[in-house]
Amino acid sequence: MQKILSGNEVKSLDQQYVAGEGICSYQLMERAARVFCAWFVQEVPMEKSVSIYCGTGNNGGDGLAIARMLDGKGYSVHVGLIGDPDSGSPDFRQNLQVLPERVSLDSWEKCPSGQVIVDAVFGVGINRPLGGDYQSLVQELNARAALKISVDMPSGLPSDGPAEGDVFRADYTVSFQFPKLSLLAPEHAVFTGKLVVKSIGIDRRYFESFDSRRFFYSGEALETLHKTFPNSSHKGDFGRIILAGGSYGKMGSIGLSTRAALRTGSGLVFCKVPACGVDILQTSIPEAMVLPPGGETEVGGSLETEGIDAVGMGPGLGKGKGAVELVHELLRRYSGPTVLDADAINILGDHPEWLSFLHAKVVLTPHLKEFERLTGIEGKNHFHRMDLARDFVVKYGCVLVLKGAYTLISFPDGQQVFNNSGSVHMATGGSGDVLTGILTSFLGQGYSMKNAVLCGVFHHGHAGELAGSQFGRGTLASDILEKIPESFRHFGIV
């Protein structure tokens, strides 16, 4: 996993790295520019004209190096400068000196508008809203029709806090080595566009001296997080789990969870559903077993958990009396691995006195509104929600998966992990139910809490990517679960 540093720590990281490797900051800037250009030539046709807008700091130095390299690759490049170049950073001035004469260089007001706009005005250092010419430039660029790309950070966006004032609106942001925290906030997606993270070769050991507890996970060494099973394994070795949920008109939810658990590899899946859903489950998912129902249209009755390896509860559950009693019983009596989703979380939010029943083997999987109901606090922004999530799990000793773009996983030791898999096409009803099945399955198979959640969330997102690449906006939650085996194969999981 890649540690995420604050904007103030980036300069210190760069200094430690260049000193440790015996190189200069200009060489590191050259490396960043080459990485950017390698990505750029894969995305932008040669016939597109390119306008690069550069400030006079190191982000502007990146922009000048990119202009030189793209010119060398045959692109038509224009550079627009903003600020006093004589007072620019040393690396900016050095890159200005080696900019080829054939590259058009003007003030930002005179720079011709290209079909592609590259924003290299401000990087991680900005800590106040834009004003003056900088604000005017961003406003003008935002109004233009062009493909827009930011280098490391969209200009005007702080690294570690909410946006204030005008911010460049990129279609792509190419961030170096790790994503800055602000790029992961859902409310900043309108500025970030599609986030691309490219390594510039800074070894992980240079991050060790920084105390950040936040990480970015892109599936590195994913296979090492998975359990392996010998050839002599039988279905009991792959876990006996219960999935509880469903109500009249909402049997599809628990059906998706059940199919997802089976596709993830569970050996035996038992379903606790109302009487109205028994025939539906038995007919549509013959591999599942249905427990005796305790209610006609909503789940009710008791839950026998002897010999059960994990329980998932909530999809389509409803909030009737029987459902409330079932959640209460599970929290009071079952100490094994537990996943609470959807209405189980809403019921818990209605009964905050039950929060004391949470323990180290409980995973909560709320979306943003469910999280607000759970905590009773409306998050001011994503930075506030990150702190709320961390404080919640530290207080109650559980794991919390805050679903959304770059799903945030919070562990009770205070570590938080942003997941880098998924697709906008996963924003469809039932996607969260699939995740509940995946997580419960891994827990039932005997994965540790941390490995189960990291594997579950990542594979859920990756399966969503695979489904989205095939079906686009027509992606269904059932398409996602059917791609789980393909996701396993992609990462060599057998």
TrEMBL record:
<keyword id="KW-0456">Lyase</keyword>
<keyword id="KW-0413">Isomerase</keyword>
<dbReference type="GO" id="GO:0046496">
    <property type="term" value="P:nicotinamide nucleotide metabolic process"/>
</dbReference>
<feature type="binding site">
    <location>
        <position position="367"/>
    </location>
    <ligand>
        <name>(6S)-NADPHX</name>
    </ligand>
</feature>
<dbReference type="Pfam" id="PF03853">
    <property type="entry name" value="YjeF_N"/>
</dbReference>
<comment type="function">
    <text>Bifunctional enzyme that catalyzes the epimerization of the S- and R-forms of NAD(P)HX and the dehydration of the S-form of NAD(P)HX at the expense of ADP, which is converted to AMP. This allows the repair of both epimers of NAD(P)HX, a damaged form of NAD(P)H that is a result of enzymatic or heat-dependent hydration.</text>
</comment>
<feature type="binding site">
    <location>
        <position position="119"/>
    </location>
    <ligand>
        <name>K(+)</name>
    </ligand>
</feature>
<feature type="binding site">
    <location>
        <begin position="123"/>
        <end position="129"/>
    </location>
    <ligand>
        <name>(6S)-NADPHX</name>
    </ligand>
</feature>
<keyword id="KW-0479">Metal-binding</keyword>
<feature type="binding site">
    <location>
        <position position="433"/>
    </location>
    <ligand>
        <name>(6S)-NADPHX</name>
    </ligand>
</feature>
<dbReference type="InterPro" id="IPR036652">
    <property type="entry name" value="YjeF_N_dom_sf"/>
</dbReference>
<feature type="binding site">
    <location>
        <position position="316"/>
    </location>
    <ligand>
        <name>(6S)-NADPHX</name>
    </ligand>
</feature>
<feature type="domain" description="YjeF C-terminal">
    <location>
        <begin position="218"/>
        <end position="491"/>
    </location>
</feature>
<keyword id="KW-0520">NAD</keyword>
<comment type="function">
    <text>Catalyzes the dehydration of the S-form of NAD(P)HX at the expense of ADP, which is converted to AMP. Together with NAD(P)HX epimerase, which catalyzes the epimerization of the S- and R-forms, the enzyme allows the repair of both epimers of NAD(P)HX, a damaged form of NAD(P)H that is a result of enzymatic or heat-dependent hydration.</text>
</comment>
<dbReference type="InterPro" id="IPR004443">
    <property type="entry name" value="YjeF_N_dom"/>
</dbReference>
<dbReference type="InterPro" id="IPR000631">
    <property type="entry name" value="CARKD"/>
</dbReference>
<dbReference type="GO" id="GO:0110051">
    <property type="term" value="P:metabolite repair"/>
</dbReference>
<keyword id="KW-0067">ATP-binding</keyword>
<keyword id="KW-0547">Nucleotide-binding</keyword>
<dbReference type="InterPro" id="IPR030677">
    <property type="entry name" value="Nnr"/>
</dbReference>
<feature type="binding site">
    <location>
        <position position="59"/>
    </location>
    <ligand>
        <name>K(+)</name>
    </ligand>
</feature>
<dbReference type="InterPro" id="IPR029056">
    <property type="entry name" value="Ribokinase-like"/>
</dbReference>
<dbReference type="Pfam" id="PF01256">
    <property type="entry name" value="Carb_kinase"/>
</dbReference>
<feature type="binding site">
    <location>
        <position position="155"/>
    </location>
    <ligand>
        <name>K(+)</name>
    </ligand>
</feature>
<dbReference type="InterPro" id="IPR017953">
    <property type="entry name" value="Carbohydrate_kinase_pred_CS"/>
</dbReference>
<keyword id="KW-0511">Multifunctional enzyme</keyword>
<feature type="domain" description="YjeF N-terminal">
    <location>
        <begin position="10"/>
        <end position="208"/>
    </location>
</feature>
<keyword id="KW-0630">Potassium</keyword>
<feature type="binding site">
    <location>
        <position position="432"/>
    </location>
    <ligand>
        <name>AMP</name>
    </ligand>
</feature>
<feature type="binding site">
    <location>
        <position position="152"/>
    </location>
    <ligand>
        <name>(6S)-NADPHX</name>
    </ligand>
</feature>
<dbReference type="GO" id="GO:0046872">
    <property type="term" value="F:metal ion binding"/>
</dbReference>
<comment type="similarity">
    <text>Belongs to the NnrD/CARKD family.</text>
</comment>
<comment type="subunit">
    <text>Homotetramer.</text>
</comment>
<dbReference type="GO" id="GO:0052856">
    <property type="term" value="F:NAD(P)HX epimerase activity"/>
</dbReference>
<dbReference type="GO" id="GO:0005524">
    <property type="term" value="F:ATP binding"/>
</dbReference>
<feature type="binding site">
    <location>
        <position position="134"/>
    </location>
    <ligand>
        <name>(6S)-NADPHX</name>
    </ligand>
</feature>
<protein>
    <recommendedName>
        <fullName>Bifunctional NAD(P)H-hydrate repair enzyme</fullName>
        <ecNumber>4.2.1.136</ecNumber>
        <ecNumber>5.1.99.6</ecNumber>
    </recommendedName>
</protein>
<feature type="binding site">
    <location>
        <begin position="58"/>
        <end position="62"/>
    </location>
    <ligand>
        <name>(6S)-NADPHX</name>
    </ligand>
</feature>
<keyword id="KW-0521">NADP</keyword>
<feature type="binding site">
    <location>
        <begin position="403"/>
        <end position="407"/>
    </location>
    <ligand>
        <name>AMP</name>
    </ligand>
</feature>
<comment type="similarity">
    <text>Belongs to the NnrE/AIBP family.</text>
</comment>
